[in-house]
Each structure stands twice: as C-alpha cells, then as structure tokens.
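forwarding from the other thread:

> can someone predict this with zinc ion?

sure thing
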Amino acid sequence: MEGILKPSMEWYFHTAIYRKRADINAVLHTHSPYTTGLAISGVKLRPITLEAATMLADVPILPFRYPGTEELGVQVGEAILGKRAVILQNHGVIAVGFDLFEALTTIEILEEISIMTFVASQFGPPKEIPPDQIELIKRLYRI
Ligand SMILES: [Zn+2]
C-alpha cells in the first residue's frame, strides 16, 4: 500500500470491481438519497427519460450486505459485469466509469431520474417512453 491517506473501508468492492472490469478506471460510491430511497422501497428505475432508457436501462438493486465486508465485495464484483452502476439496498449507489467524470455523470443521472420518478409518482404512475421510440433512439445513436 502506498500514499498517506487511509483506503476506504469499502476497499473490498473497489478492488473487486477493478479485478473484474479491465475497462474501468474509476469507482464512485455515494449515499444518494433519492436513488437509495426508491431502492429501499423496491422501486426499480423505469425508462422515463432518454438517459434512463439508454444509459441506465438495467441498474440492479442488490440485497443488503453489511458495509465493508468481503461478502459485499464479492456480490458487487459479480453484479457490476456489463453495468454502469449498481444500487445497494438500504445503503447507497456504486457507479463505475472509464474515468471519474463518467462515473460521476452516472451518479448524477441516476439521482436526477430518481427525483423525477419520485415527483411523478406523487401524481400517478410515471409514464414511460414507448419501446419503439427507445429502439429508434438506440438505432440513431448506435447505442
Ligand atoms: Zn457507503
């Protein structure tokens, strides 16, 4: 170990991600209140915006594991394959990226979509972007 700062207590999942994903150079972990709050109630994010439909189509909610444990590290290491982010139920969010900017953007978009979901839910079920429109956008932008 090098450097003067103490590693995060969550070093298990940070290192698990770097071991499993050669394409990842940044891992961010937050306790984003809206994203975490919706996950605590089991609310999965739906395609209510273009970003939600294309970038964050499938963000899994992982069952609670005690923070800072090897068990949580193993769980996250397996779940992060092919994903930009995972949500830890009753805990927070983990986002990954090629760099810190990409990981932070994912955290911000997740929280933005969660706030929209929360607000929309006060007035009825949130309306989703129709699947044919999502496919069209994916084709246009080659996503
Ligand atoms: Zn945490």
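The chain has one domain: 11-140. thats all i got for now
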